[in-house]
Every structure is written in C-alpha cells, then in structure tokens.
Amino acid sequence: MKMKKVTALLLTVAMAATMLAGCGSKEEKAEGKKEDGKTVLKFAAFEGGNGAEIWKNIEKAFEEEHKDVDVELHLSSELDKDLQKDFKNGNVPDVVYYNLGQESGFVETMLKEKAIADISDVFDDELKGKLVGGITENAAAQPYGDGKVYLAPIIYTPTGLWYNKDLFEGANKKYDLPTTWDEFFALGDKAKADGISLFTYPQSGYFDATMYQMLAQAGGIDFYNKAVNYDKKTWTSEEGKKVVDTIAKLASPDYIQADTVANANSDGGFKINQQNVIDGKALFMPNGNWVIGEMANSTPEGFNWGMMAPPKFNADEDNYIYTFTEQMWIPADAENMDLAKEFVKFMYSDTVVDLMLNNKVVNKETNEESAAPIVSPVLGASDKLEDGTIKDTYTLASSDGYEAVAGTWATTKPIDGFDMKATVYGAIDALNTGEMTADQYQKQLVDAWEKLLENVE
Amino acid sequence: MNRKRSERRFVFACLAPAVILMVLFIFIPTINVFRMSLYRMGGITNKQTFIGLENFKTLLGDKNFLQAMQNTILIIVLVMICTIILAVLFAALLNRGTFKGKNFFRVIFYIPNILSIVVIAGIFGAIYNPSTGLLNTFLKAIHLDGLARQWMAEPNIVIYSVIFALIWQAIGYYMVMYMASMAAIPPDYYEAASLDGATEIQMFFKITFPLIWSNIRTTLTFYIISTINLSFLFVQIMTNGGPNGNTEVALNYMYKQAYTNGSYGYGMAIGVVIFLFSFILAGIVNKITDREVYEF
Hints:
Chain A: Belongs to the bacterial solute-binding protein 1 family. The structure holds two protein chains of two kinds. The relative contact order of chain A is 0.16. Mean pLDDT of chain A is 90; it is low at 22-30. The longest helix of chain A has 22 residues, at 2-23. Chain A is of the alpha/beta class. In chain A, the strands form three sheets. In chain A, strands 1, 2, 3, 4, 9 and 12 form a six-stranded mixed β-sheet that branches. In chain A, strands 6-7-5-8 form a four-stranded mixed β-sheet. A two-stranded antiparallel ribbon of chain A has the order 10-11. Chain A has two domains: 39-157 and 325-371, Periplasmic binding protein-like II (D-Maltodextrin-Binding Protein, domain 2), CATH 3.40.190; 160-287 and 412-454, Periplasmic binding protein-like II (D-Maltodextrin-Binding Protein, domain 2). In chain A, strand 1 (39-46), helix 2 and strand 2 form a beta-alpha-beta unit. Helix content of chain A is 40%, strand content 14%. Chain B is an all-alpha fold. Chain B has one domain (55-288): MetI-like (MetI-like fold). Chain B has twelve helices and two strands, in the order H-E-E-H-H-H-H-H-H-H-H-H-H-H. Chain B has helices spanning 2-36, 54-60, 63-96, 102-114, 117-128, 134-141, 158-183, 187-195, 200-211, 213-238, 250-259, 264-288, and strands at residues 39-41, 48-50. Chain B has a two-stranded antiparallel sheet with strand order 1-2. In chain B, strand 1 and strand 2 (48-50) form a beta hairpin. The model of chain B has no long low-confidence stretch (mean pLDDT 92). Chains A and B meet through helix 1, helix 3, helix 4, helix 9 and helix 15 of A and helix 1, helix 2, helix 5 and helix 11 of B.
C-alpha cells in the first residue's frame, strides 16, 4: 500500500520536473566564438519567393572569403515569429534579411522601437558609386529621414502595371498601350465594349507601389518626398487631389473587374485576381516581376507578360517607375557589429551579384528547377540578365524619359488604434463597393496624415 | 491521525501537477496581460514605459475597435440563436424521428466540427466565389440570377457570410450534446403523453425542452467563449477583417494591433476588455437563464 503511494508520488514529481525542464532555456554558447576559435556570425534570412538556396550559397561564399568566420544561417518562412522569440530571449542575430512591407510589419515595428543599427558607414563613397542612383537616399533605406542609412537595399525590382503583351503587340494586337490616364480610361471604355475589364488588383495592399508612383508622377520628386513625410497639404493640394480622384475613378465598378474585391478578401483569392489578367478578364494589374514565378503553374504556354509604367497625368511629363527594394539590416543589439557590416558590404560584391543573378528555385509541386534571377542594385547587374520580360522591366526603368522613385512612408512612433495599410489601401476596396466616396477617402487621408505628422520623431 | 496526514499529503501531491500547470500557463499569463495593458511597448524588444490607464482611454475613442466590438457582438448573438434553434431541432429529429439513416446524419452533421478551420475556409471560399462558386452557380442554374451576390465583398453581406460558416461549423457539436441529454429522458414520459393525445410538437415543448434546459444553459456559456475564439480564427483566414473592416472582430483587431502595428501594450488592453466582456456576458446570461431545474 505504502509502496503504491510512494510510486505515485515519485511519478507526479517526475511529471512536474519534466514539465518545468521543458520551460528552461538551452545552455548559452560562449560569446560569439566557437571552440575552434572561429567567430560565429548569426544570419537570419526570410525564405520567400527567392528560395532557400541563394542564402546557403551566400553563406558559403562569405565563409570562403573569411576563413575565421562561421556563418550560422537561420532560414525560415515565418522569420518574424522566430525572431520575436529570439529577441525576447536575448538571442539576437547579427544580421537579418527581412524586408519592409511584410504582412507582419516586423521591420516597421523594429524601427518604431529604434532597435535597428545605423549602418551609414557601410555606404562609403566607393560603394555608393557602385550602386544604382538614389537607392539609399529614400525612406526605405533612411527610415527616419535623418540622412543615416539603417536598411541596406540588397534587391531591387521595378514595379508597374502588368498585362498580356500579345494584346498590345505583335500579330494579335488588339489595343494600343495607353500613356496617359485619359488614354487609359478611354481604353477601359473600349475594352468594356469587348467584355473585358480595364483593371484588377490582387489585394488592395498592391496599391502601395502604384500610389508612391502616382504621387511622384503628379508632383515630382519633391512633392513625393514631402508626401511620404506626411506634409500637411499632401492630400488637399492639387496634386494630391489628382491622385485621390484617379484612384477613386480607377477603383469604381466601371473599370474594376467585378470579382476583384471578393477575391482580394478571400483566402488565397489574390491569385484568382492575377489569373484574371492571364485569362483575359482584366487588362492590367499592379505588380512586380515575382508574379511570373508565382503564376507559372497556371500560365498557359506561349503567354507573354508585359509591364508598363503607370500612366502619366499629362503627355509631356517624364514617366516615373517605382522600384521596390528588399532590405538587410543589423539589430542594434547585434554582438558582432563590425563583422555584420562586413557581411552587408559583401552583398554588393561581384561574387554575390553573380550568385543572385544565377539563382534558381525548385518548384515544390513539380520539383522542376527554374531560373529565378535576383537583381542587386549594383550598376550593370541587370544588364547581365537573360533577354526577356524581366530584363525588359529593368531596361524600361533605366531608359530615357523614365525616372526611378523608391522609398516608403516615413517611420513614426507607434500610433495605438491606427492601421496604416487599412487606412490608405484598405479603403480602396470600399471605394469599389460604394461604401466610401472619393471625398470621404480624401478626408480619411487628410486626418491620417495629420495624426502621422504629430507622431514623426 | 498519521494516516489522515499522509492521505492529505498524497492528495496534495496528486493535485500539484495540475495546479502548477494552471498557475504557470493560465494564471500568470492572465495577470501578465493585465499588467502589460498598463504599458506602452512594441512587443519585440523588452523596452516598456508605464502609462497607467492611457491605453484604455485611447480605446474608448477608437472607432475601429468599436466597429470590431460591434461585429463581435452581432456574431455572438446570431451564432448563438441560430445554432441553438438548429442544433435542438436536429437533435430532436434524430432522437425522436422515425426514419432511416439516423446514424448517417449524425455523422454528417458532426463532420464540420472535426475539419480544421483552414479546410473550412477553403470550402467556403469555393462556395462564395463570385463566378465559379457553388452558391452563385446554383442560383443561376435555377434562374434566380438576381439573387447572386458578391458574398465576400458587399459591405452589408460579408459579415453574414462569415456568420453562416460559423453556424455551419458549430451545429454538429452542440447537436451531439443536446442529443445526449435527450437520450437520458425516460421514454415512458413520451408514451404517457402520447396516450393523452399530445402531438410531437407539444411533447417537444412540454417534455424535451424543459428537461434539457440545464444542458442548454451550460452551452450558452460555451457559445460566448467559443464564438469569440472561433470568430477570430474564421475571420483571420477567411477575410482578415476586410473589406474595409467590415468583418473585423475584436480578437483579430487585438492581434493586428499587438503584432503588426507595434502597439503591444494597446493590444493587451484590448485583450483585457475582451476578457472582462466575455466574463461579464457569461455571468449575465447565466443569471437570467436561471430557473428551477426539472428532474426525472
């Protein structure tokens, strides 16, 4: 009898003990050094559309050039969640590849918390001379607008309106490519008669690039820079009003493919919207060159993608193209700051530029390997691309009469109860469903800008 | 004496693991939520500033939160009413009805409950799709084109599309619960009633319903808690609050504020409000449905 009780007691103790053991953290390694004397560089990278292989190759290349360094690569498609835990536990990575504009808003939050290191010294004159002009002189690299670089743009992609090239060129040409918004909407009326909608968008968030571009197109770079820094008059000015009205007109049921909003708000529905461009139900959508790979499985053979800059407001203006960048950054609490900076610099070396251009991804469904070149913002990198749609987008962005614009809304202090994406882009769904008018949208933006300006640091 | 003491020690030891688990994973986190709601923090690094009740003050004037709360209440009320009616009805039919394949229906009704939310979201995505979806295609097939809608886009409809999915998912679970308590009612009551000439409907309201009342009361609390939780999962996967906040629910809003807006402390304040809301609501429902329990 007594034996039984003792056993039960022991078992419960064992249970409690194992449970508590599970909560303990694992043993800490000695400060950034391994037994063999090598310095450990902790590199956390987001595994997204560019695949996993490229980061492993870069890891190897860096180790080859730095024999005394061991790069510890942490790859994850849910990097934000992993990092959140790591930061809480004080296990801070030395260098991170995770870009702005992700659904999780992780980098934005890091910036609001001032937890990202100033890496201006990486971008000395020599390196700057190697890079595509202006790529580090915008809010996506200098989030606080204080002239200091915190986010290193390591990948850049021109964005624009994507369409089926064969409808506008070649033997089966049906329409002329519009250059101004007037022509664009005229084309919309013409296409409507043929039963095709002018426009669709995967999700309202895809309007970000379009909106940045439109601001620059409407008022030039100075106006754009003021707008992303929440200038009070942004939306009441003539230029701002022009942008709001054009978006409202574009989002009206007259021009938007009817199922757009429903698909945009359903699980995985953004692909159906993208498919509608391939299937000829809509003519244009805002996107970047990743859409080619994203839709490869359902694109019929012989289909040709094309990309154009969003239209101009007047025929005699220069065109603007918004280039989207992906960033690498160093946490302010990183242990091996100098080595991490060295690693960031390494991203612009010829070795990495070539590795990125030769990147391949494996399709998880079909196991087929296909080329997925990544373009580094180093001068001349895009010239080495194979001829085709992707190269065309880079050529377009650097051709005469085209100006590149990059960046993002300036970072503010956290504003409780405010959702930037929903306020600025989410409302576009409401413009389509008739829940909101252009004037209400303008007012919402004016109010938001006022609030944002108060919270700029 | 000695025996009593060792017995007590034994009981204590047996309870210890459960108590430790409860304290560690339920009490401490809950207290932590209350504590964190008084701070301004981003949630990634450990920086925090004490701001007292500031978060709650902001909350009162936050239109998005009020809209999310409104949607949550609408969902709780509608899901509760519709699910009770349908689940009790189906349970009564399966319990008292004399038709073939009762077991088959029981299984069919229960299936939605064992499906994962992601699968359910997929199913409803396929049902609500405006051009290829089951619903609109069916309406067109029976020449009711006028009724075809953009189920996931129209601001006045989309919340009901989510509510329908929630009800569809919940019926089976509650039906099984009601069936269990109906099966416990002695059959002679029905026999006696039918000898007195009572119809099935009369029997349902005079016998079945009063006798399963205490069971229904218990499930009311379940409805409140599970609807608050499930509405978050459904909304997060099906619509993520869109279009334009029309399907936003309180927990999803809390998640967005805490994890994507960098307002972790504010998110925790929302959590506190939801916690108190569900607690108080469950208390009120429990109080007003209190009546004499019939026994058999």
